[in-house]
Task: structure prediction
Amino acid sequence: MKEKKGALSHLDDLEYGEILSQAINQIRTARVLIAKQISSSTQSVYWNLGRLLFERQLEEGYGSGVVKQLSIDLKTEFPDMGLSPRNLWDMKRFYERYYQAEAKLRQAVAVLPWGHNLLLINKLNDDSKIEFYANETLTKGWSRDLLLNAIKMDNYSQVQNQIKTHNFDQTLPTEHADYVNEVFKSTYNLGFLGITEPVKELELENRLIAKIRAFILELGKGFSFIGNQYRLEYNNKEYFVDMLFFHRGLRSLVAIELKIGNFKAEFVGKMNLYLSLLDRLEKSENENPSIGIILCADKDHLDVEIALQDINKPIGVAEYQLLLPKEELQTLVLNELNAVKKQKNLP
Result:
């Protein structure tokens, strides 16, 4: 221990031995779990090492010698772990940053890779922002570089400033609402229908049915088509849902109502009724509440907000576009021409 005396001048050998022993025990305990859950277990050991340094009140400066020696001895015991002095101080910062944070935030960062966590600590101070980016990383599988780009582009503010034309946050459990928000779009492009003049709602529906595969692709992954003009009977009355889908990930029936004009408040009342009937008549016990999407040509977010205010069923209002961007239109035309040539056996 002679070579350590200078570094450990303010601690006796017994005290340092306790710190080293506890650090080794923390690592050995966590290693049993690392094989099962690498990310969370690694974060757990980093968390506990950070807490050890914090509780021993070691600070950069007078505590540098202790942490440097701790790093040397730990790396001798565990040469395959990142236990440099810099990393040990980062573990302490990690613990200090989150030990008083809400459980929801701690759970979000606990399963992130260590490099992602260091990036969040270095770039952000706001808890809500860190929770947002942590959840986005987990949901979308962002690499560290993608996470950095999202922070640089301030994705958090962009999402917060988006005008919401649904009530999912108020009518669904938090985890389910977050997933529905991922699935739901505020605008759907129906340019693949090739509509160039006004059509009635039923014709719009029929054209969508004729190209249901393209429509499902526009809706997103996970949708399965059940039927159009789906019949519901209750109290000797018949009701017909324009289009009914099931989303495998959400485990929810999704009703879509098509409107060729501007949004009107009465659309919400009708959809609310359909969702009540679907939940009563069609929903299985292991499925989540049915979700409604009102698809219209245009919407005013203030009208939507007041219409949804006292509604207890999850409903979203979205616009549709009938024109495709130039590149997509060219691709569509080429695909149609190739299909015709194939049918006629043309070269």
Q: What stands out?
A: The radius of gyration is 29 Å. The longest strand covers residues 223-234. The beta strands are 187-189, 223-234, 237-247, 252-258, 291-296, 315-321.
